[in-house]
Amino acid sequence: MVNNLFMRRRKKNIAGYLFILPWLIGFCLFTAGPILFSIFLSFHEWHIFDKMKWIGIENYKKLFADPLFYHSLKVTFYYAAISVPVGLVVGLFLAVLLYQKVKGTSVFRTIFYIPSIVPVVATATLWIWIYNPEYGILNFLLAKIGVRGPDWLYSTKWVVPAIAFMNAWTAGPNMIIYLASLEDIPKVYWDAAKVDGTNSWQRFWHITIPFLSPTTFFLLITNVMGALQTFAQAYIMGGGGRGFGAPANASLFYCLYLYEQGWSWFNMGYASSLSWVLTLIIFTLTLIIFKTSNKWVYYERS
């Protein structure tokens, strides 16, 4: 009887492994494998068509002596410093606006979320037209109120803020997550605050914001990660400052520079070292956010 029980369990285990085998193969081939290979590559000099050459930490030494490495980091952090707060504020504003129990709210929720599911290429192409200094609708509207609009994507001063402000167009995911969190706030706190004579702003600042702080904490981490890995917008809208966009590498984002090293110049080893330095930067920033969260994140205790 013990042997029969053992055989049944063994058959169930084998069946379970067979069911997850396609996923395991895909994970090893397309996730774990490339990650391990990129670590291996970062210690080599390899131009795809040439033989690999072990060079130890030379790629990392070269990286920290590369002025474009620091410039691309500066551009990326500048972008993140604008796009992350803008995305969070716009998402929260829309969530509070659409939380109101008025007719047609579900329709407006759908309308505001739709831009988030539009492909990045289509969104970037649309905003290239909006930002066009000659016939773009933004400068046209500014001219109507007597303001001369800048060159936006063609300006070294405005290209990064222009791409960052476009991020507000895709604040739908932040909006949805904030909406879900608003639904979870016990209404008894707002009612009690009303009885105490507080106004709408006081209730928002002292009740809503603290209750939403865990959600803000989560969105801050995910938005920072996304901002530091921005590529498509920079590639399409700015070209790194080398194509149609602003000159002087004004829009040379970190991931765009990484892409150029790997797929334009075929410096695969150097590109791999760039990717692992970015991973370390993201990990460090995430750790800092976690370590400081106890000072501003509020969790309701039951």
UniProtKB/TrEMBL annotation:
Its main location: membrane. InterPro entries: ABC_transporter_permease, MetI-like, MetI-like_sf. SUPFAM superfamilies: MetI-like. Keywords: Cell membrane, Membrane, Transmembrane, Transmembrane helix, Transport. This is Binding-protein-dependent transport systems inner membrane component. It is found in: Cell membrane. It is a multi-pass membrane protein. GO terms for cellular component: plasma membrane. The chain crosses the membrane at residues 20-43, 77-99, 111-131, 204-228, 271-290.
